Amino acid sequence: MKVLCIAAIVFSAISFSSCKKDSIILPDTEHSSDKPGDSESPQDTIPSDTIPQDTIPTDSGDTEQPQGPGNLLSQMGTIKLSYDATYQLTGYDSYSNIGYTIVYENGRPVRLNFTKHPSYAIYTYEGDLVSEIVTYNGYNEVSYRHHFTYANGKLIRESQRSYISGFLTVDDYSYDANGNLIRIAVSGAASGQESDLKFSYNVLYGNYDSQPNPMPLISSEYYLPGVKLFTNNPGYRETPSSKELYTYVYSSAGLPVERATKLEGYSHVPAAIHRYSYW
Prior knowledge:
With about 280 residues, the chain is mainly beta. The chain is about 5% helix and about 40% strand. It has one helix at about 30-35, and strands at about 75, 80-85, 90-95, 100-105, 110-115, 120-125, 130-135, 140-150, 155-160, 170-175, 180-190, 200-205, 235-240, 245-250, 255-265, 270-279. The chain has a 16-stranded antiparallel β-barrel with strand order 1-2-3-4-5-6-7-8-9-10-11-12-13-14-15-16. A hairpin with a 5-residue loop joins strand 2 and strand 3 (about 90-95). The two termini are about 25 Å apart.
């Protein structure tokens, strides 16, 4: 995951953009392009002043469209989310090459159909929790296999095996007492064997506010129903190469309506602004 992002498949910028690898066992092209990690994080290497300022879409004026409860996130920056009339998440789209629609059976996701390349993903469950997601290419060949491990209902480990490169990437998740992600410990093995895993680096989050985080995803690459990495909104995200500082503007309901991102040590660079809208 990498909140994802977060080693894709899913939400940037969820929210939810990729946990870019810094010291690297794995090649950057494998992990950054295919596994966004957690959605709370913009790309590490993009200077803030090059990121366009986001705008909140205006109302289409179509009174026939059903209205949501007002607290379902429909857009954060360039990430767009869609829902059905029962408030189930049905789609994810971003400015990057990540986009998908969600297929449900008996009220739970069973398949993702990717909209920007000819591939799809199939879910396997153990009880109510997703235990595995397998991604297939346009020739129905397995590309990636994700395994998920939980403790007390929280995701604590995600492993991704690439059948393209043979690499194995493992993300171990740690949380604070409020259920907020505070660390992703990233390890990798070029052999694809767990016995050869070596720690690579940490991605750290902290300085959380007390307001609800509206992002329903752990990652822009896929959707895990009922699983969130962020209860509240983080004040920073830190990798070995950079530290992003976040400040928020909130609605009267306490939901974030704007997030400003600054790179620590670059006070002269204007903040990147991501705006939120709700359905």
